[in-house]
Amino acid sequence: MGMVIDGQWSDEDRIIEDGAFKRAPSLFDLEIPREVVNALRNESGRYHLIASMSCPWSQRAILARQLKGLVADVPLHLAGGERIEGYPANGGDPWRVPGTDRDVVHLHELYTLSLPDYTGRVTVPILWDSQTLRIVSNESARIMRAFDASPDPNSLDYTLVPDALSVAIDRLNLQLHDGLSNAAYRAGFAESQAAYDTAVRDVFKTLDGLETRLASQRFLHGPVITESDWRLFPTLVRFDIIYYLFSRCTLRRLVDYPHLWAYARDLFSWPGVADTVDFDAIRRAAYVDHPETNPFGILAIAPDIDWRAPHTRAQLGPALVATRTGDYRTVEPVKRTAI
Ligand SMILES: N[C@@H](CCC(=O)N[C@@H](CS)C(=O)NCC(=O)O)C(=O)O
C-alpha cells in the first residue's frame, strides 16, 4: 500500500510482522482541544473532514458529523479511487486544498503540507484546519469525540458519551476494536495461517458475545444509544459484503445472528444514517483496489439482504439518548440533510 517516509512517498510497507497485520498508530492522535471543538460551529467552514465512503473508520467520523448536525459547518471531501501513491484526494483529479490556492492529487501531499518531514501511513479520516493548514487529527476516535462534544443548537443536544457510561464505553470500544473491527482486517490481511486463525477466532467470539448481549437490550449499553453503537455499526455494515468473503470470515454471516442483524437494521433506520452507507463503494474498494489479494479485480456479487426490512427492536423498549445534563430522553428523530 505504501507510506510516507521523511516527507517522501515510498512504496515500502511496514504493516506485516510475522505474517500478522499490525495497524500503525495514528500520528496526529492527540485529544482535540476545546478551542477546536467550539470553533467547529462558531467558525463554520474552517474545519474540513476528508474521508472515504469505503472506510469504516471514516464512516465513524461521517456518522458523528451527521448525527450531531455538523453537516453545514464541517464540509466533507470524499477521497477514493485507485490507490497509486495511496489514496487519491479526488479520484485522481486535482483537488484544491481548503484554505490554499494549491492543488494536490494524492492525500499524502496533505500530510506533508501539514508536516514536511512526516513519516507514517496516509490514512483517512482526516480533520483539516483550513486556517493553520494543519491536520488536526487523523484518528477517527478523536474526531468522533470532538464532533460529539460540539453542542447542537438545532436539535435535542444529546451526547454519545454520557458521564455515567464513559468507563463502560471506553472498555467496550477497546474490546470491539481488538476483537472485531480490527480483527476483521487482521483476518483479511494475514499472511500466515496462524495469524488468520487467531483473528477469525476473535471475530466470531466477539460476534457471539454481542448476539447474547443484544438479545435482551436494545443497544450495547442498554436502552440508551452511545458511541459504542456507532463505532460498531460501520463494521456490521461491511460484514456480509466484504469481511465474510474478502477477509475469509466465513464461519457465519451477520444475517445468521438474528439479534445482531435486527440491531444493525435499527441503527440503519436512524435519521441520516443510511446516507452514510455506500455499499458499492465498500465492495469496490475491497475487491478492486487490492490487486495483491484479488489479482483479477473481480467484484463479488452483493448478497441479497434487505437493510430496510422492519427491525422489531422497539419491543425491547424505546430508544433513549443521554442529554449533557445526565438525563435520558426518548429520541425525537431529526431529519438531517443529506451528506
Ligand atoms: N486509526 C485510524 C485508522 C484509519 C485507517 O486505517 N484508514 C484506512 C482506510 S479504511 C486507510 O486510510 N488506510 C490506508 C493505509 O493504511 O495506507 C482511524 O481510526 O482513524
TrEMBL record:
The top of its lineage is:
Bacteria, Pseudomonadati, Pseudomonadota, Alphaproteobacteria, Caulobacterales
Q: Which organism is it from?
A: Brevundimonas fontaquae
**Domain GST N-terminal stretches:** 55-149
Which Gene3D superfamilies does this UniProt record tie to the protein?
1.20.1050.10, Glutaredoxin (3.40.30.10)
Q: Which domain of life is it from?
A: Bacteria
Which CDD domains did the record assign? GST_C_Omega_like (cd03190)
Q: What is this protein called?
A: Glutathione S-transferase C-terminal domain-containing protein
